[in-house]
Fold this protein.
Amino acid sequence: MAEEKKYQTDTLLNGNKIIQSKETFMFGIDAVLLADFARNQLRKKDSCIDICSGNGIIPLLLEPHVEKISMLEIQTEIAAMAQKSVELNELENRITVINGDLKEVNALFPKHSFNCVTCNPPYMINQHGQKNNLDAKTIARHEVLCNLDDVISAADYLLHSHGKFFMIHRPFRLPEIFYAMKKHGLEPKRMRLVQPFENTEPNLVLIEARKDASPRLEIEKALIVREKNGEYTEEIKKIYQGEIPPLRSE
């Protein structure tokens, strides 16, 4: 008999609880940064979906700021864990969990049915394409079940005109990201690089794109994660505490 996986329940600073497992999926700082990058651009009435959603961390972080949000996750066990978190928080009328493949998004949702898409996708290129005996962590980190073009194509399908797409990724893949966005009618509008320390090379990039928008890219000041002594910077502390500009009501 397979060993039972160990789950833990953690409480987010917004009060929502999340069920996680070190053996399958634990959220990281990238999800927190993406949620913060997106939420100060959202309106309460926005219709949102998070794709490559994992255990639902981004919907649980964004839920207080929008009326309803959906999430799409391909791994059945991880989607079930997210559903348990939704039920634990009694958010069934606010968060909808869909277990499905974003490459088949046209069979899951009507076209152009959202005005906001968020995504923290697998970052690493899977050069060998091996899909057998893959664990949850490998699937979350490597492009084995979907690739960058699949992600952006799904966002294109889901978004109506002028809808917003928020994604976090690796800077070394920016040429591919911009090419894929242009290919699918998404215009990069805002970008912020994330550096582990002030004098280190960026290892993450936050991007906001708009569907059918005119070209113009705003590059924001780099986000520094840690001070020289290893402690979080004041901005990172504020992000974790949810100290962000007020949301627009319209």
Remarks:
- The helical segments are 29-39, 57-62, 76-88, 136-141, 148-158, 174-183, 234-241.
- The longest strand covers residues 159-169.
- Confidence is low (pLDDT under 50) at residues 127-133, 244-250.
- DSSP finds seven helices and eleven strands in the chain.
